[in-house]
Amino acid sequence: MxxxxxxxxxxxxxxxxxxxxxxxxxxxxxxxxxxxxIIVSQLGSIEKKFSTVYIGGGTPTSLNRRLLERLLKAARxxxxxxxxxxxxxxxxxxxxxxxxxxxDCGVNRLSIGIQSLDERKLKKLGRxxxxxxxxxxxxxxxxxxxxxxxxxxxxxxWSETLNSWQKELDEALSLPLKHLSCYSLTYxxxxxxxxxxxxxxxxxxxxxxxxxxxxxxIERLSLRGFKQYEISNFAKEGFECRHNLTYWDNLPYLGLGxxxxxxxxxxxxxxxxxxxxxxxxxxxxxPLEEFSExxxxxxxxxxxxxxxxxxxxxxxxxxxxxxxxxDFPHLEKKxxxxxxxxxLIKYKKEGNVPTGIALxxxxxxxxxxxxxxxx
Length: 375
Ligand code: SF4
Known about the structure:
With 375 residues, this protein is of the alpha/beta class. The protein has 16 helices and 17 strands. The chain folds into two domains: 5-248, TIM Barrel, CATH 3.20.20.70; 309-374, Arc Repressor Mutant, subunit A. The relative contact order is 0.11.
């Protein structure tokens, strides 16, 4: 196994949020016990340490404290002193006891899904926690001893204004955060918000307003020392999420749990989503994978390009050649011309010689267009 990164999916939440299309179900203690048993047993059969371990969801902290401890202790055995060990948490499921458990088990990075500090926005998103709890959870985590805290924020809800987003972001900046992920709201298929959009009970914000919100975030966060290192991710110096960098560099990773994706030796595979089926298959000794695809070298190279372009540093031609074996300017000749003409990318140069490409300001706003062109 070459993967240096391990992802563990915990598919339970207290309640489903209105915009969410991640696989998760409402927490059930019996199911969670069986599920964690499987993950612990799978971890036990892995004989290596990882440089990043990321437990996400769902809501990992929705597990009861005993189960959480059991899972963390098993995951910790896959870490060494240098491992970035992240756990996702939600404000409603963080308390003194759980924070202590996380710290005692070696977790050194906490990613809190606060999503908003605006009461009305949180309600519209269907979140359980309120604004005070969101802020308190970050402060409590710091007091308990977490030095590396990240938070997620969503912007661009219907009826949200640039002014209210500015206030909210400034409030977030008063919290002891080292990392922020800012996402614009997307209306994912088959979510309650998607149906609300279809039946016109909500009207999406205009693109210009959403773009202005994003631009404000980039500018404001940079002034406050948060370096943008990917389209949606900002970090204080040295606090970039190493686990996510694995994805954007298209490096191998191992995923455990329902719906988890693994990527090893050019093969991408995905586990069955349903928790019930996952447990049933494991118990019956059947494969957990629902889907598996061997990527051709060309497809791997193209995917590497589409992922890496999301980062602020962009694609270095030398790096690309050693990572994929392909000559980037030759491979993406047509796409490069088209994207340059649209003002979405720029050349990085040494003297007059192009050494790579990176997104321009406009490219950050239309990154999906850029990624698709490279695929
Ligand atoms: S807490 Fe996160 S994973 Fe769970 S439903 Fe809400 S957005 Fe989805």
